[in-house]
Write a structure and sequence with these properties.
Layout (H helix, E strand, L loop, with lengths): L1 H7 L3 H6 L1 H18 L4 H24 L13 H32 L5 H36 L3 H28 L1 H9 L6 H16 L1 H16 L4 H14 L1
Helix pairs in contact: 1-4, 3-4, 5-11, 6-7, 6-9, 6-10, 7-9, 7-10, 8-9
């Protein structure tokens, strides 16, 4: 919520910087766990701590923008009621995404050993261009499209959406081709050592080939879905995600 508030006020730097606290906490706890042979639940506790530090770092920025943690009319606020009504379909959409992930992992568990790891690593490699470029562009254009839709400037909103899609295509199409052609080399350089054998590299590269073909589509979803959200339509993306889940299964 704090990140969304800052983004809506075009304060992108503070919101973009906060994951550093979460990542550093996880990395630091992992190093400590290896050195002192700590139980695995320590890492789960570190994830909670990292999330709290991430939230805490945003509080001063939100306070300066007028955010307050309590209002006497909190549950009767019409704006919050509208947000709640729009949020419910979005929660189902997030759940559908997680179901897709579980389905993929379940199917991979029936195959040879190492396929689940291969799917996970291939997914992380695909998330790199998505996270660095597609999500960053979507974060910036969503407040702009929301303002344009709120003022009834639908033509301007469509121009903004088309511009964002072109920018994403300019980046993800070459990235998709590069991942597809160099998949074996990329996976081998990054992961092939220790227990990760040449066979593991081949399995991961095969999964990466499939993911890379759909990279532009994945990126397009990150841009088009916020377009629906800007128009206060949270139901259509959920319906499309449900159809995609059925096809995936």
């Amino acid at each position: 919520a704090l990140m969304a508030l800052l983004n809506s006020r075009d304060r992108f730097a503070a919101a973009a910087f906060t994951p550093i606290f979460f990542n550093f906490t996880l990395i630091g706890s992992a190093i400590v766990m290896v050195r002192v042979d700590a139980p695995i639940y320590i890492w789960a506790m570190a994830a909670v701590l990292g999330g709290f530090l991430q939230w805490l770092s945003l509080v001063p920025h939100g306070w300066r923008l007028g955010m307050r943690f309590w209002s006497g009319n909190l549950f009767g606020d019409p704006a919050l009621k509208r947000i709640g009504a729009l949020m419910i379909p979005g929660l189902f959409g997030v759940g559908i995404t997680q179901v897709n992930i579980l389905v993929g992992q379940s199917l991979a568990s029936w195959l040879a050993e190492g396929n689940i790891t291969g799917l996970f690593l291939a997914g992380r490699l695909t998330e790199l261009p998505l996270g660095v470029f597609a999500i960053a562009i979507a974060t910036v254009v969503l407040p702009m499209m929301s303002r344009q839709a709120a003022h009834g400037n639908n033509d301007e909103m469509l121009l903004t959406l088309n511009f964002a899609l072109r920018q994403v295509a300019l980046i993800t199409i070459p990235a998709s081709v590069g991942l597809l052609i160099l998949r074996e080399e990329i996976v081998g350089v990054l992961f092939q050592y220790g227990e990760f054998t040449a066979e593991s590299t081949s399995m991961t590269a095969a999964a990466l080939a499939g993911y890379s073909v759909g990279l532009m589509a994945f990126a397009g979803i990150r841009i088009v879905a916020p377009g629906f959200y800007a128009m206060r339509d949270t139901r259509t993306p959920v319906k499309i995600a449900a159809v995609a889940m059925v096809v995936n299964v």
